[in-house]
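Late entry, phosphoric acid mono(formamide)ester complex.
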Amino acid sequence: MLKGKDLLSIHDLSVDEVAEILDFAGELKAMQKAGVEHPILAGKTLGMIFEKSSTRTRVSFEVGMYQLGGQALFLSSRDLQIGRGEPIKDTARVLSRYLDGIMIRTFAHSDVEELARYADVPVINALTDLLHPCQVLTDLLTIKEHRGQNLKGLKLAYIGDGNNMANSYMYGCAKAGIHFAAATPQGYEPDAEVTKNAVADAKETGGSITLVHDVFEAAKDADVICTDVWASMGQENEREERKKIFAGYQINQALLEVADKHAIVMHCLPAHRGEEITADVFEANAQVIFDEAENRLHTQKAIMALTMAD
Ligand code: CP
Ligand code: NVA
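Prediction complete; structure with ligand written out below:
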């Protein structure tokens, strides 16, 4: 179903395609744990363009490609001609002549859309200012592992900045039939167009989208509570101001008191203890959080295999 397609946004995927990625990621994980080789992308090459920092994304895509029998190339925008002004549309057409897939992490989402428009090979969005689809697909897999295979009807609360993670959670929850509630400060709500699309997507699956400013209202009876940094990559000079604005938008013990008593806490990492999450809540949920980090590997292998295999 996904062969030859781009993965820019979970909104572009059908409900069945989301399920297919999660199921296949689970199968690949089981194969890897059992030591069963799975060279689905033997002889294939993935180019990985990075205009922002990364630990998890870079390593998991590179290792994932190796485990699938292919090869990954790390392409820093500092070294590419793109960093000296070569147009994205030319870079896309050149790289398509060498590579079988392109992964990109950058600032403007429109740059990824342009890359995909001009590339002849699948393009995977590895984070833009607007969306982080690989992370949220990973989070859905992790929720299945910890809260049971049926995602429909669960409640996921997101506390903090209405950023790329919040936007992608809305899309992911809408496709999975999860009730999504975000609490953000006024003026830091998720993207308006993404919200509109997610509300429409949720109608098809029985999910829902709720945006509030009160953290306790969002977290009430939640099965999963997520957060992300108060200042994302590219917002470093707003850090001090944001610390004041977001004070109170924190996952801490008091907030967990209103959630479901079996609630799990997730964080895409990197985490800032004492800001969006307390150190004690982070450590109490370390098993889930580091399963989530590991699952980037399995989920992205599924995405690459499904989009790039012959
Ligand atoms: N969560 C995530 O995308 O991590 P990196 O920025 O380290 O890739
Ligand atoms: N919102 C964060 C996510 C990091 C994985 C950022 O964009 O920096």
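The chain has two domains: 10-131+294-308, 135-292. Will revisit in the morning.
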